[in-house]
Specification:
The complex is a heterodimer of chains A (221) and B (860). Chain A is elongated. With 221 residues, chain A is of the alpha+beta class. Among the domains of chain B are: 234 residues, Dimethylsulfoxide Reductase, domain 2 (3-Layer(aba) Sandwich); 138 residues, Barwin-like endoglucanases (Beta Barrel), CATH 2.40.40. In chain B, strand 9, helix 9 and strand 10 form a beta-alpha-beta unit. With 860 residues, chain B is α/β, with parallel strands linked by helices. The chains are: A alpha+beta (221), B alpha/beta (860). The complex binds iron/sulfur cluster (3 copies). The site of one iron/sulfur cluster has 12 residues of chain B, from helix 2. One iron/sulfur cluster binds next to helix 2 of chain B.
Chain lengths: 221, 860
Amino acid sequence: MAEEKDLAKIKEAVKRHKKEVYVPVVPEMQLGFIHNNVDCIGCRACEIACKDKNGLAPGPRFRNVMYVEGGAFPDVYAYKVNMSCNHCAEPACLPTCPTGAIFKRKKDGIVDIDSTLCIGCRRCEAACPYGAPQFIPERNIVSKCNMCVDEIDAGRKPYCVQACMMRVLDIGDIDKLRAGTWVTKAMASHEKPVGAVKNMANPELTKPSIVFVAHSKAVVK
Amino acid sequence: MSASKYDLHAIAERLNNAARRDFLKTTAAGAGVMAAGGLIDLAAPREAKAFAYEPYPTDDQLTTVVTSCAHNCGSRHVLVAHKKGDVIVRLSTDDGRYQKDGHFGKDTFEEPQLRACLRGRSYRQRLYSAERLLYPMGRVGKRGEGKFKRISWDEALGYVSKKMIEIKDKYGPTALLDQSYAGASYGVLHKSDQIEGLLGRFMGMFGCRTNSWSVPSYQGTTTSSRWTFGTIEDGNEDDAFAHSKLIIMWGWNPAYTFHGGNTFYYMRLAKQNGCKFVLVDPQYTDSGAAYDTWWIPIKPNTDAAMMAGMAHYIFTNNLHDQQFIDKFCMGMDAGTMPEWAGSTPNGKENFKDYILGKYDGVAKTPEWASEICGVPAADIKKLAHMYATTKPAALKASWAPGRNAYGEQYNRMAAALQAMTGNIGILGGCAEGVGKAWHAEAVAYPYDQYANTWFASIKSDRWAHCVLNYPNVKREEIGLWPRQDATDGQIPNIKGIFWQGSDWFNQLTNINKEIEAIKKLELVVCMDSTITPSGLWADVLLPVSTHFERHDVALPWYKGHYYIHRPKVIEPLGESKTDFQIFTELAWRIGGPTFGRAYNPKASREYFHYNDAVDEAYLREWWEHKVMAHQGVTMPWEEFKRLGVYKFKLDKPHVAFREQIENGKRFDTPSGKIEILSTELAYIGDWTKTKYGSHIPSIPKWIEPWESLNHPKTKEYPFHLITPHPRHRTHSIFANCSWLQETFEQECTINASDAKKLGVATGDTVEVWNERGKVVVPVYVTERVMPGVVVIHEGAWMQLDENGVDRGGNPDFLTLDEPSPAGSFAYNTVLVNIRKTELEHNPGWDKTSISRSQVFRRDN
Ligand code: SF4
Ligand code: SF4
Ligand code: SF4
């Protein structure tokens, strides 16, 4: 249904649009994830809990437990790196969205996509260095982890965290997590969190809100 | 599109200020109530805003119903249904709220949350699957062709009851084979089970039942535990593992099986307390990785030899606990031999002298063991030293190495090691074995002398052999259980099979032989919630409601001390009925009120249509007369129903045989001791008259299996196949769930050096075959499995092509239906060959639902 275009209006809109400058939201407190690469058994209960929560068909995965293995028989090692959306401080996805469907919450830094605005152009999918945005073909939209905002707003934790049989996945105030002062079962008292491991894109790209207890072979020098 | 959606002012506001549009705001009823113990210091008020993915009901807008998972995985976890009307919208799990004094986030050492695994979490896919059986179906094609038409309950049950009577009259009381199994198990009321389930009692009362006595998962282990300790309750509760200083995981992979509600988690706590872990396994499993283990790769089926080598090291270095041996063991050494032993036909030897080589001239040294098991002698010594000198140490001798030729010898050898190091009956030690721990009140269904009545009982994996060779079958070939009456030794004339909670046709060994046998039967009935590979071979399919659609209480399978209420969460789908309804109605049809009332005393015939009040009555009675009466529970039934979960708090960690060791209580064996020398076995002279069928030494010994990597047969079949439990299925259950198919694929795991020789790489498809069958699977190349060993997980749904090749990759086309004397299934005693193939693997019945599993499978 082609609409009559009003040239004046378009010009006005372009002018207005050009003036928009994106200033990243600085949240009052940034929530982020912690994952213990070593103690994780790779069971993927977190993944399935997420798929069920978000009603995802096979294919798109908001959370992805990566399996890493190496060495030569019998001297081998294996560990897991578990990532979803990292609700980055400088989200690469957000400014690429032509409709402004992606937004970052002020109070806790959660990055979410408003599905009513998403037109399925998949730019965010291309922009994210961690592969978080997932295309949902049946609905022609992109969707991703929103840290289960509904659960957060109800004072609970995300489905994946609550699913973890080993209690190695958790969320918290990312600053405190980084400082090692956040109380969490994901980490033993002698363990130290790190902001990056091998097998992930350079965190300098977006400043992701995630820390890991790294496997010795995953440590980034 | 309304213009407002593209209002740039609105967008600008969104970009820089996270305020949500007003029309998205709703206030969720009940939100905020569960804040206690919660998360983050998020400021109140807690106003749940609607989701960005409209329309999306939040949990607090849905009805919450607490229930549990229900299969034979070795565990039992909480599932919480969030439903709208009669539809389950999503599932969550225990979060600490659904128990007495519970609150969100409560997860203590004493009362840990019972968090469901990936299978449980995908339950909606099973519940609402395309494979769900909704109506009774009658076969219209040839048997196994998979063609059925919908029939009424009246037709279905009319046919089944008529055939049952006909078969019993014509062929006698052994003509119907009970192949019920634990696939829909461990409700206290709606129980499917091999020995004492609802089907067994129904057939026993009917007077026609051949029982299948050997348990596929762990018969070798069971027999070993019974001989040695007199019980299968040789397990500690899972929190006891947190107290170990050394845990040896022998063929044990809790990261896949989730055996025990929280065992794997308590082991993590042990690790944090400085516990060391060792993995003896042909594979470096995910358990191996997560617990930072010292991996000792071992040739499959040679475990008993390695353990004998360890025993030799411990004895000869005087590291054994002689005091413990003298006090608690029989037959460990010359000093603990009973006087009577010398005059028995089979009981003259003691364990230590066997190990030292006194009888056969072969000392079972680590060097001797190394030749057999492929583990360097130095490693055997090192492990033996560690185990004998670290206190307390848990040697967890898991079931898998027992699913082998002479698997029982492995478990008995492990028990000998546990005993000689004094690690039995102490906190942090381990006598497992079977590993059943806390004793639950398990029976709410009617239970009487008919609960396990049978007229013949055979080794479960010998049914096809029996059917195909009848009447020219010797009793020892089928492990016929002795009877005390004139029918002792009579070979059952099997003409019909019942499957209840059982996919045994897909799950027992040597499926091609089963396919031959099933053609000879006159009645095959399958009762299940979904169509299964077995169901395709049935004459009548009876739709059984899942545990979401019937009232019950769940109990832990193996470890854990709790009950979980299972209300009827939703109405039964389609025309499905509970097993109990079906058997009750069949009883009424066959024997009128006499049989009907005897089978289900609380019900009238109306039960087939209205079962709620009767089920409630059974469950309430069980709670009040068993749980409250025997287990010190004061919580009323109504309160338990309201809360959902009852967690027991034990005064001290439950450790098997603590009473025996601390207070001198007798063991449940004939001698009252830990029987390294088995009294029962010592006295046996004529083995053909026993259920074992052939000779078993009275002490643990290494016996060469009929095939292994040390066998000349490796010229033709150079690879040893093991078939462990998968993570993404409970045996064959959940095989049709696409979420799970996405997490792992059915594949053949092979060492990189072997793959190189065969010219295959990850992503290629191979055919794996031996003289019994052929399967087609993708190959996964890794350094994490021992060269010469290949792994295919059991439970894939078979999919035969026109040439009888299984494209689904079910390894039981390759396994042998030759059980060990004590009944161990030989699931892991298989030699095969492999080659690259052009044949296509078929990952599922519904190909379109199979997603990009390979794409996500692994990263390097
Ligand atoms: S926070 Fe929620 S949406 Fe994000 S990965 Fe976890 S379960 Fe999925
Ligand atoms: S649920 Fe926990 S242990 Fe399992 S894969 Fe996810 S993070 Fe790892
Ligand atoms: S471990 Fe067993 S009971 Fe627990 S959720 Fe998984 S399948 Fe269900």
